[in-house]
Amino acid sequence: MANTPTPHNGARPGEIAKTVLMPGDPLRAQFIAENFLEDVKCFNTVRNMLGYTGTYNGKPVSVMGGGMGMPSIGIYAYELYHFYDVDNIIRIGSAGGIADQIRVHDIVIGMGASTNSNYAAQYQLPGTFAPIADFGMLRKAVEAAEKNGIKAVVGNILSSDTFYDDNQNAASLWKKMNILAVEMEAAALYMNAARAGKKALCILTISDHLFTGESLSAEDRQTTFTDMMKIALEIAE
């Protein structure tokens, strides 16, 4: 395509698969490529936002970092959908638990992504848009989790623009609406997918809980994050 490479992605046309796994941390993208994919080739090093393409069980799969926050993933996802002909993006990341039924180690799949962001204002809609996952991908993720004996909770998550919120009551207010967990990217990804007519899903690992104070150790995070990666790789098309 004429728009590739972009200012943020050095890949050439054809170097990125139809499905991209997108952790926030580019080093986690490198970890997935080195430990789960075969015949791996690096397609991007611009801004150190590493991207790789390889195969998983014979299927072409790409993995690329998306950065922190909606502006960051918004740029990368937009370019993947519009300039690199990507059809599916699966965000895999960490989240803070909010709901009482959520515990550390849990896998949370974001059916919807509420947000305190103004990201949707760009679409000039005459109302409030509800960012949601692709149902087909969501169903496959739930089935993959069940098949592998992995606990997965499905529901509404919060994509927040703020990590350090000046409103100390914000989490409690979201909790009243049965928000399961908070992260910082899914709403923008879901909106980009909707606008592009493409598919998106967010799979999260609960690394800590905002109300109980629970938190995973570095070793535990590596193990549970691996479960999340397996689900995402299994449903890659």
Topology (elements, then pairings):
Blueprint: E1 19-22, H1 26-36, E2 38-44, E3 51-56, E4 59-64, H2 70-83, E5 88-97, E6 107-115, H3 135-147, E7 152-159, H4 170-176, E8 181-183, H5 186-196, E9 199-209, H6 218-235
Parallel strand pairs: 1-4, 1-5, 5-9, 6-7, 7-8
Antiparallel strand pairs: 2-3, 3-4, 5-8, 6-9
GO biological process, one term: purine nucleoside metabolic process
Function: Catalyzes the reversible phosphorolytic breakdown of the N-glycosidic bond in the beta-(deoxy)ribonucleoside molecules, with the formation of the corresponding free purine bases and pentose-1-phosphate.
Catalytic activity: a purine D-ribonucleoside + phosphate = a purine nucleobase + alpha-D-ribose 1-phosphate; uridine + phosphate = alpha-D-ribose 1-phosphate + uracil; a purine 2'-deoxy-D-ribonucleoside + phosphate = a purine nucleobase + 2-deoxy-alpha-D-ribose 1-phosphate
Q: Work out the helix count.
A: 6
CATH class: Alpha Beta
Radius of gyration from the CA trace? 17 Å
**Distance separating the two termini:** 22 Å
Question: Can you count the beta strands?
Answer: 9
Pfam families: PNP_UDP_1
Site (Important for catalytic activity): 221
Domain Nucleoside phosphorylase: 19-230
Organism: Anaerobium acetethylicum
Describe it for me?
With 237 residues, the protein is of the alpha/beta class. The protein has a single domain (19-235), classed as Rossmann fold (3-Layer(aba) Sandwich). Helix content is 31%, strand content 27%. It is built from six helices and nine strands. The chain has helices at residues 26-36, 70-83, 135-147, 170-176, 186-196, 218-235; strands at 19-22, 38-44, 51-56, 59-64, 88-97, 107-115, 152-159, 181-183, 199-209. A five-stranded mixed beta barrel has the order 5-8-7-6-9, surrounded by four helices. A hairpin with a 6-residue loop joins strand 2 and strand 3 (51-56). It is globular and about 45 Å long. It starts with 18 loop residues before the first strand and ends with a helix. The mean pLDDT is 96. It catalyses: a purine D-ribonucleoside + phosphate = a purine nucleobase + alpha-D-ribose 1-phosphate; uridine + phosphate = alpha-D-ribose 1-phosphate + uracil; a purine 2'-deoxy-D-ribonucleoside + phosphate = a purine nucleobase + 2-deoxy-alpha-D-ribose 1-phosphate. Homohexamer; trimer of homodimers. It comes from Anaerobium acetethylicum. GO terms for molecular function: purine-nucleoside phosphorylase activity; uridine phosphorylase activity. InterPro entries: DeoD-type, Nucleoside_phosphorylase_CS, Nucleoside_phosphorylase_d, Nucleoside_phosphorylase_sf.
